[in-house]
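Input record, target 12 of the design panel.
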C-alpha cells in the first residue's frame, strides 16, 4: 500500500489487462488483498479512453444496511477482471468470481500480482478462467535478502 508500490503496480496491472485483450469495465476482488491493487489499476486507467471502475467483494454480506456482498461502482452486466494479490489455492479468486457472477457480472479474466505456484492457477484455468500473473514466486523468492 506504499505510494511506490501503488505507482508501480497500477500501470503494470493495467498494461497486463490491455495486453491480454480484456475489454473490462471494472476490476476488483476479495477484500483485503485485492483492494489496493484494484484501486491502483483503476487510478492508472483514469486518463485513458477506457477507465476501469474498482470494487471490492466482502468475505461475508453486511448484516445491516443493504446487505451487499460487492461494494463500489460495480454494475450488473459489467465485464470484470477479478484481482488477486497472490494465487495459492485459487479459493479467494473463486469466491470473488462467484460473487461477481451472482451479481450479474461477466468475469473475463483473473489477474494476480503473484502466482505462488502451488496449483491455484491451474485450478482456476481448469474451471475455464483465463488467468494472468505479473510475476511468479520462483522469480521473486531468489531476490529476497536472506
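The sequence produced for target 12 reads:
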Amino acid at each position: 500500500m506504499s505510494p511506490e508500490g501503488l505507482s508501480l503496480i497500477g500501470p503494470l496491472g493495467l498494461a497486463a489487462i490491455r495486453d491480454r485483450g480484456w475489454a473490462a469495465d471494472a476490476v476488483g476482488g476479495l477484500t483485503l488483498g485485492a483492494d489496493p491493487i484494484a484501486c491502483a489499476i483503476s487510478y492508472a486507467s483514469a486518463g485513458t479512453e477506457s477507465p476501469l471502475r474498482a470494487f471490492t467483494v466482502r468475505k461475508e454480506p453486511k448484516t445491516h444496511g443493504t446487505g451487499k456482498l460487492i461494494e463500489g461502482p460495480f454494475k450488473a452486466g459489467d465485464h470484470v477482471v477479478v484481482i488477486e494479490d497472490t494465487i495459492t489455492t485459487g479459493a479467494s479468486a473463486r469466491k470473488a468470481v462467484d460473487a461477481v457472477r451472482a451479481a450479474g457480472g461477466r468475469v473475463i479474466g483473473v489477474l494476480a500480482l503473484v502466482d505462488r505456484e502451488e496449483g491455484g492457477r491451474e485450478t482456476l484455468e481448469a474451471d475455464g478462467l483465463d488467468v494472468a500473473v505479473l510475476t511468479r514466486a520462483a522469480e521473486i523468492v531468489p531476490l529476497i535478502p536472506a
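The beta strands are 26-30, 53-57, 70-71, 79-87, 106-115, 131-136.
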